[in-house]
Amino acid sequence: MAPTSSSSGYFDAASTEPLHPAAREALLAAYESGWADPARLYRSARQARLLLDSAREVVAGVIRARPDEVVFTASGTQAVHYAVLGTASARRRTGSRIVVSAIEHSSVFHAARAVPDGDLRTIGVDSSGLVDAERFATELSGDTAVACLQSANHEVGTVQPVAEVAKTCDDLGVPLVVDAAQSLGRDDVSSGWDVLAASAHKWGGPAGVGVLAIRRGTRWRSPGPEDERGSGRVPGFENVPAAVAAAAALQARMDERDALAAVQRPLIDRIRQRVPELVPDVEVVGHPTRRLAHLVTFSCLYVNGEALVTELDREGFAVSSGSSCTASTLQPSHVLEAMGVLTHGNVRVSLTQTATEADVTRFLDVLPRVVARLRDAAGVDGL
């Protein structure tokens, strides 16, 4: 599909991917046939239930789960909150320790800190943003309520050793919560998880749809009031059209995933190589090889991140800066801080499915001029 003028400079797919054509088509069709209450027994309700069940089957197939292990939530954030809080609540007699990596999404930390009397243990990462699986294992013990490890980092793209950590967790009987928001639809996600959370708008589904999957046999208790909907896990009337569209987008992304990665990886490799050559005093961060195909982050010394985002926007490019979890406040990234790399003047480029070589070429042409202009305005000499 050829890019449109509105999407050709949109380089923030890690925040949200534009709606996939398959999702748009499924959404419109489901609004016609899936609007009724799926909990009722009349014909239109049964049709809605069939659509909802079909969507769950699609998602379950992708994550290698059972359909009855999957429910849809109101967002990826809600899925993470319910994953962490529900698992910790069910295991409060086991212990209060919660083990997480230092670079988890802010939603994981918010949920972990909300656990009553929780003992939060944070595992550091190396300068590439990679968690040491052996170090992670040393913090696991018999009184660990839950462990959390993302599948891939949302800011620098580093893919985490989920399989290795999952094996240790399984040996110790510790449930592992995996935030798969950045990986699902783009990369393989280890099947060693006990609870998984994801967000549909990251793979081209509609916003307002999350996925919560809980393996059978995993102890979990809803952190909210009981509700008869959502298999007793997530309250509220199911948004059937949105769930159908999310599943359609995910299936489409899985079908095109390898071909898309084959296009995006060389483009990101080019950015990783050329930016330090074109712009002085730049640090490219994230693992050089163990990373998502569509994402790269770099930090420019002597440049304000907010100003850089604004100036690039004026040139027609949408990128993110600061912490991707709290970009509205442009707080220093806790991910970059944990990695021990530059936290200011950073730019995250994440390509959509429609990004082209021409888009990247234009970005590489614009970026040096923008950085030089900002440094000149700041009175930075000798660059």
What does this structure look like?
With 383 residues, this protein is α/β, with parallel strands linked by helices. It has helices at residues 21-33, 43-63, 76-90, 106-113, 133-138, 162-172, 240-278, 305-314, 334-339, 357-377, and strands spanning 70-73, 97-101, 119-123, 144-148, 176-179, 195-199, 210-214, 282-285, 295-300, 346-350. Helix 6 (162-172) links the parallel strand 4 and strand 5. Helix 8 (305-314) packs across helix 10 (357-377). The longest helix has 39 residues, at 240-278.
Give a short synopsis of this structure.
The chain has 383 residues and is an alpha/beta fold. Helices cover 39% and strands 13% of the residues. The strands form two sheets. It has a seven-stranded mixed β-sheet, with helices on both faces. A three-stranded antiparallel β-sheet has the order 8-9-10.
